[in-house]
């Protein structure tokens, strides 16, 4: 998705929280967790002017608001009549979001005009209406309300008649009115938006995979890899768990989806940025089985993982070409590599896994080199988890053309010391795939019903 618009920069050289110079670590929105949630789920981002600002006290504009909701919807492409005052040029960062919002009736424009007011600050009741319309028309959620909770608020009378039903539902859900008043005519700030939209996301967007649908979560673990898969039959799979420092985040993310069991775990290869967090996950969940290549390492991280596996008595399977981890009606998960008995580079021991859901496919590549990936998979895939955090060793233009993915996801840490992704990798992929990066987009979730793939909230 395109970045938020650029405001006038305010000088402040010292980062405070997550690299933002204007976000104190002791602010209410950080301590409550809503700031991390909004960033980790790709709902909100900092400004794109290089100032490292988030603008917590800046007003959310109407264009910003619909862009967040568009991200929650999976960034669909839609056609709709143009508003007179919106920018639909190639340079416009919000044009696709506004078209989607109008086509979905999330917004209708100002009454009696063909104007949207993209740069106008959004009021709290306007934002509540947008969220309620999204819930009703896009997610098909019942937004009816008795209005009792709203009536108990001292400023309930200041809610506009046209917004009353939506505000009543928003108060019921805790999206508005966490304090004693709801302030419906007040403008929503970006830090308030973190709270309101994070709560909305949990209610609207985080519904889990439907029966017969797969949902793949590329978890933002910084400079590492972790992918959690909700399979169409209700079972689950975890492919890697990031660094040691990421283990708690991965465990919390999975628990937040409502799971206490992981049926299949794939440890692609024994590097710390892939298996470092796995011991924490194994300790915190009921585990079905684990798949690992016949590669070893004498690191404390790898040996510690083996200790936990032995301690819990988790069955271990050797990951080898042709083995099927799981299959059921309409889907299968098949190992394509390792296909040799030895490799000189530990990265090439990486488990390369193809998940087929109906007519669609996902390819997980670990840190394998482009030559190994090319030998393992010489056909089109719909979604490519780009190898080795976007390193040039794992992706070439020829491989990109061979796989010709519709979607490509790079799991990479912001400002990492390795220079990932290599400059030529996004260039090689941009002509064939819709490219997403965890350092820019946060956790990326893709849903697949066997025919279509969409970016989920």
Automatic annotation (TrEMBL):
Keyword tags: Hydrolase
Record has Nucleus as a keyword: no
InterPro entries cross-referenced by the UniProt entry: ComA-like_MBL (IPR035681), Competence_DNA_uptake (IPR052159), Metallo-B-lactamas (IPR001279), RibonucZ/Hydroxyglut_hydro (IPR036866), SLH_dom (IPR001119)
SLH domain span: 16-83, 84-145, 150-211
GO molecular function: hydrolase activity
Name of the protein described by the UniProt record: MBL fold metallo-hydrolase
Organism: Ellagibacter isourolithinifaciens
Taxonomic path: Bacteria, Bacillati, Actinomycetota, Coriobacteriia, Eggerthellales
